[in-house]
Specification:
236 residues; 4 strands; two-stranded parallel sheet
Amino acid sequence: MPAIPVEYASRRKIRERNKLYYRFNHWPIWIFVFFIAPGPLTFELFERGFDWRMASWLAVVLVGTAIAGLRGRLPGVEPKPYIIRFTEDRPNPLYRRICYTLAWSEVVTFAVLNIAGLAVAAATGRWHLKEMYRWGYFPIAGMLWGLGALGKLPRVKASTQGEGHERRYFYGSVWAVCFAQPVLWLMWKVLPRSRGSDAIKLAVFVGILAFVGNLARLGRLPRTRPIVPGEVAVSD
């Protein structure tokens, strides 16, 4: 098995403050995270296009995240980095726990429902994905919200002490889904509707998740290398 490369925190440049462009570049990430939070509406967005409901929700998200960002209450949008020492047992702020809990719920729930919908379509020849999102999204996402509230998810624990490793799991999952979801959307647009095509979509989707997830496990993707504890570093 190939060795997993590590980062030595002592070799990382320490930031006293986050530059304005760095803070601004993180804002759209959290706009997107909160915007797609109502999963059934997001499904209809990709099915039918933008409507007044999504426009209203986007306006709420823009205002809410802008206020939070100006107050330094979004990860990466703080005036200065919160985490400096990865071995330090610091309390994990509420805003970080909320943001990362929401992100985890979307990463997991969208992937699980898409896999289930593709499996059913490939097996039966009928699509029930819309109904799955309508009835299944919030129970699955709600379970993850509960785990986040209990501090049972990476980057959502009460302490930030394990950030050097926990961020690997978060970014690895995000990378996998961010590669797989656009490819699935493209296949949904260009491939014909048939059980054979649905089986191909399922195989490609799961294959990308597994392949990219393994790259992350091996530390071959950005922010997926373990940061060796006991040194000074900065996290966002």
